[in-house]
Design a protein that fits this description.
The protein is about 35% helix and about 10% strand. By secondary structure, it is an alpha/beta fold.
Length: about 450
């Protein structure tokens, strides 16, 4: 769901999955990075301990950057948590370094029904017959908008319901951005008098996505042109040299020049900082931001579907987090019980009712939608996107993701900052990326 950092990991010998009698008074260490979700998972921990009085779960939360550095340091020092929330961008390297317990033997032994999740979620966490996590949630991408700014522009939510996009003129998506952009003289982006160098209100804010995945910034656009990062998970050939990708990235880079979005340099203060400040009308982000945007900002936030591309479809990256067990845990039996509970209706119903995230189990997701609706928020756009045939594509899962990210981050920064044209540099970057995976 986010950027990928360089991971330093030590080789740890994978322990046997054989089970032994659970020890009394066991305390499990469990960590996650999203503070918005911590209360819901504390409810799960309380319910779990009530059913398993000999096991206590201690939950810790760390911010995104600190989370991964602390986790990998713990792998090296032998102090990592028993169970942790894992991400598709990180687990391949953890698995390659033998730092994750293979859950497949436990799943088989307990005859666990893994068909209860949204299709594809479990498979994202498996490789070569091994399973490195059980699904906890899923996410897709949509448009969040400032309803007050929309109304001031004389627009209605219906005006954002059927937007279209193409890389030549941006379609009605770009026109909506222009209509919602205002310079310091009050001219909209549709006016010939609009000054793109003196903008008071932007129609759109993007973090640009100078990463290898571009989950919430460009991937959903490039996909409507038929482009893919990889042909399948763990494929060894990326397609960053595809002209369709260059067209998409260049269109995004040019938004800042047109004054319809903050420049890449202006957005370094935060991918959504101006949206939060009421100075940008729209932002694209993932479903994990629903509660944050709709409950913490001083204006009403609405949610609209992504624009349809040249293929006539809305396309969103389909991602999902999972819970994994550290191979060095001294409490693997108890850890498995906890992971199994986290992936069950027992926990995911509690998470759904909290209205903090969309659980991996459809029935639990329905509870989340009801919880959001009770707060005046219609989050169905995200679920509808996930259910649309052909409307999603997988997060790019590959080996050496951190090294791939380093190359693409440097390359895309040059494009978004205006130093280079996408068509001139992406071919070379792609060659360097694919050389890593040979």
């Amino acid at each position: 769901m986010k950027k990928v950092l360089t991971v330093t990991a030590a080789l740890t010998v994978l322990a046997s999955p054989a089970l032994s009698a659970a020890q009394a008074a066991t305390t499990l260490q469990y960590v996650l990075w999203d503070s918005n979700q911590q209360p819901a998972y504390q409810q799960c921990a309380n319910a779990f301990t009530k059913a398993n009085p000999d096991i206590t779960v201690k939950i810790s939360q760390k911010g995104w950057d600190d989370y991964w550095s602390s986790l990998t340091t713990g792998f090296v020092s032998g102090t990592a948590p028993d169970v942790f929330t894992n991400h598709l961008g990180y687990y391949p390297q953890f698995a390659a370094n033998n730092q994750l317990v293979d859950l497949a033997p436990y799943i088989a032994r307990d005859k666990l029904d893994t068909g209860i999740y949204y299709p594809g979620l479990k498979d994202l966490w498996g490789r070569d017959g091994k399973q490195y996590g059980l699904p906890k949630d899923f996410d897709t991408v949509a448009i969040f908008y400032n309803a007050d700014l929309l109304a001031k522009a004389g627009m209605k939510p219906a005006d954002l319901a059927n937007l279209t996009w193409n890389p030549k003129d941006g379609g009605t998506y770009q026109k909506a951005m222009a209509r919602l952009s205002l310079d310091k003289s009050g001219n909209s982006g549709l006016s010939a008098k609009f000054n793109p160098r003196q903008v008071n209100q932007y129609g759109y804010q993007t973090g640009y996505g100078a990463t290898f995945n571009g989950q919430t910034q460009w991937s959903f656009l490039a996909a409507t042109l038929g482009w893919k990062h990889l042909d399948q998970p763990f494929a060894r050939t990326y397609h960053y040299d595809d002209p369709r990708f260059a067209q998409t990235v260049q269109w995004l880079a040019d938004l800042g020049t047109r004054g319809l979005a903050p420049t890449y340099q202006e957005s370094k203060a935060g991918d959504d900082s101006l949206f939060r400040a009421g100075r940008a009308a729209m932002v694209t982000n993932g479903s994990w931001m629903i509660a944050d945007y709709t409950s913490k900002l001083p204006f009403k936030v609405g949610i609209a579907p992504l624009p349809k591309g040249p293929n006539g479809k809305r396309m969103s990256m389909f991602n999902g987090l999972a819970d994994s067990i550290w191979v060095g845990s001294k409490n693997k039996d108890a850890a498995w019980k906890w992971v199994k509970f986290l992936a069950s209706r027992g926990c995911q119903d509690l998470v759904g009712r909290s209205g903090s995230v969309l659980p991996a189990i459809p029935a639990s997701t329905n509870l989340a939608l009801a919880a959001f609706k009770a707060k005046g928020v219609d989050a169905s756009v995200f679920v509808n996107q996930a259910k649309t045939p052909g409307g999603t594509f997988y997060y790019p899962i590959s080996d050496k993701a951190s090294e791939v990210n380093d190359i693409m981050s440097n390359t895309l920064q040059g494009i978004f900052s205006g130093q280079n044209k996408a068509s001139a540099v992406l071919g070379g970057a792609n060659s360097r990326v694919n050389a890593l995976l040979k």
